[in-house]
Amino acid sequence: MLVNRKLILAHFWLAFAVFGVALTLGAWQMFIRSPLGTWLSNPELYYRSLTAHGTVMGYVFPTLVAMGFGYAISESALEQRLVGVRWAWTGFWLIVAGSIMAVIPIALGRASVLYTFYPPLIGNIFYYLGVVLVVVGSWIWVALMSINLRIWRKAHPGAPVPLAMFANVAGSYLWAWTAVGAALELLLQIIPVAAGLKNTIDAGLARVFFSWTLHAIVYFWLMPTYIAYYTIVPRAIGGRVYSDSMARISFILFLVVAMPIGMHHTFADPQVGAGFKFIHSAFTALVALPTLLTVFTICASVEIAARLRGGRGLFGWLRALPWDNPMMLALAFSFVMLGFGGAGGLINMSYQLDASIHNTQWITGHFHLIFGGAIVIMYFAIAYDLWPHLTGRELIDVRLIRTQLWLWFIGMVVTTFPWHWVGILGMPRRMAYFDFADPAIAPQALSVIFSAIGGFVLLTSGIMFIVILARGMRAPQVDAGAYRFAVAVHQPATVPVALNTHALWVALMIALTITNYGYPILNLATTGTSVPAVYVGAQ
Amino acid sequence: MSTGQAHGSVEVAARVERRWATIAVIIIVGMALLAAFAGIHRATMPQPRVETTDPSRIHLSGEFVESNLGSVLEANGNVTVRAIGQQYSFTPACIVVPVDTPITLRATSADVVHGILVQGTNVNTMLVPGYISEQLMRFTKTGDYLMPCQEFCSFGHEGMWGKIKVIDKTDFANRAKAGGRLSCVGQ
């Protein structure tokens, strides 16, 4: 029962529009710093572009997808009209206002601090205020998801919360708490300095605050993808979810252990001691658990679909899968990229191995493969799946959709695999150009060219995606019926309270954050290591 | 399908799932134990201690005054290198060290966040203003190594490349006899 289609479409269209802009910037960056481009006479342009690319891809695009998808889940899984539509629109317009407010100083070169902020570099205050508005807008969504679930619970006492909504609300709580780290950094540290009220800032403390957000935000980006794995894919390919409870356990594990692990981003930092570095490393290993469980459950669910379609044998069933179905393709591509990206992630979080690749191009390759690859390809699949229900029109170009998904997959592999490789060779991140004539850097040139070509394949695929959706707005009308989610092989009649509610897990998430972050933050906040701010764009 | 069969399949499904969950937990615990073992037994771990400094005064007194930057041969035969990063260079811009010698790199930033990465090695540390980074290293081959700043430090970041020159042990010892702090300058 999708009633507020306009609201959901607005979120998706804004998400994909800003995605298109940021993707174009990304492709330009890949090109201009490769041997194919010529050195920028003004390298600062590169960092403007990089700040815009990161801010949009990190904060605006996935947040809008999660919000739009969340509203769709709330209405269709709960079969209940969205409560608080006016608030939802307020949240949407806050994000529009925040994005515009942030992008103007970026475009003027007054906020080239990258989306990771990096104090004591300080940019124009409107950049930070814009980001704050985006986050505040998304917090309205968090509240609405919680309120809508509460209303449903009252009407259905004791009934199992539909898996899609259970996961969606878990994701929203994760985001609410995750964003607090960066919010504290912005409100307590950066904004007072950007406003001129102070002129010193503790860079070490800021890095720890930011690590609180920086890792768990990845799991917030991941949530819509995992929800699609569990609740859309099995239905779309004619299978069943292998296990409803394992799905719930996976989402609960994400909620609890995605948070207290962010300091693995600071292994190479001098402001955190070895003890907390090790604790965070061990907890990061733990967050691999829900992914390992998910890989099993989804593969089993896919096998069910294959066997229902007459698949036989130990591996012969793979042939019986509906490979012409875009959802099947997207899932397969997503899993391949998740596999490689996940393996790379284990290296990044490793207490010992991190030093070999920290802050090299390996890291950029890694998160583009995981986020841009495994996660975003499922955003495409979600949009394709939802579109007829939102527009009342059919997406007729299935072949084009398949080509688009293939191109994204190929583009992502061609872009990120050489990217990882130059990282191993020691190529640093975030440089506007490289001296490929230097014999020590020359061996990296070919890999960088491959990455740049891959970037253009991705851009082509991204444009195709937007064209397909736009054409879908004018396609022949169709009655898409009610939007449904996958059902489990053994659909539960009752679910234990622990697997049906979030309170206990939210409490655990907060408690673990306090144990894993409380002491380092207090310690840093009381040592008094503030340093003079360095204002950018002021020269 | 009778209810008995349905029950059976639930149990089979749960059993397979439990088995996989157990394997997953074993993999993860194994990884954590391996990291702990390597960290404690082989002493391979990220920088363990936190030391602070005041970047607005480092040029005036203390460990990181200009005359103290560079490499010094300690009494026990080890080498200590002191360096700072500032927008957009390292001082010394070219660090000289002996081969096959335990080296302690002590560095900090004079302004914003920088990083030191030595290509072809796993020497890799952040320079955060207000804090001192310490990294142990040892080179097994002589030659020149590029040492880029690996963290965005504003508009000149792409130009911030240092170098490490690894030279023969006796050469280094001879140069160290004159006293003072060594760098590639005067080589």
TrEMBL record, chain A:
Recorded coiled-coil stretches: none
Transmembrane stretches, start-end: 12-32, 52-73, 85-106, 126-152, 173-197, 209-233, 245-263, 283-306, 327-347, 367-384, 405-425, 445-470
Annotated GO CC locations: membrane
Record organism: Bradyrhizobium zhengyangense
GO molecular function, one term: cytochrome-c oxidase activity
Pfam families the UniProt entry points to: COX1
The keyword Lipid metabolism is annotated on this UniProt entry: no
Name of the featured protein: B(O/a)3-type cytochrome-c oxidase subunit 1
SUPFAM superfamilies: Cytochrome c oxidase subunit I-like (SSF81442)
Domain Cytochrome oxidase subunit I profile: start-end pairs: 1-535
TrEMBL record, chain B:
Listed SUPFAM superfamilies: Cupredoxins
UniProt-annotated location(s): Cell envelope
Gene Ontology CC annotations of this record: cell envelope; membrane
GO MF terms, alphabetically ordered: copper ion binding; cytochrome-c oxidase activity
Principal subcellular localisation of the protein: other
Residue span(s) of domain Cytochrome oxidase subunit II copper A binding: 76-178
Residues that span the membrane, as ranges: 20-40
Record-given protein name: Cytochrome C oxidase subunit II
One Pfam family it belongs to: COX2
InterPro entries on file: CcO_II-like_C, Copper_CuA, Cupredoxin, NosZ/Cyto_c_oxidase_sub2
Presence of the UniProt keyword Cell inner membrane in the record: no
Top-level taxon of the source organism: Bacteria
Record keywords, A-Z: Copper, Membrane, Metal-binding, Transmembrane, Transmembrane helix
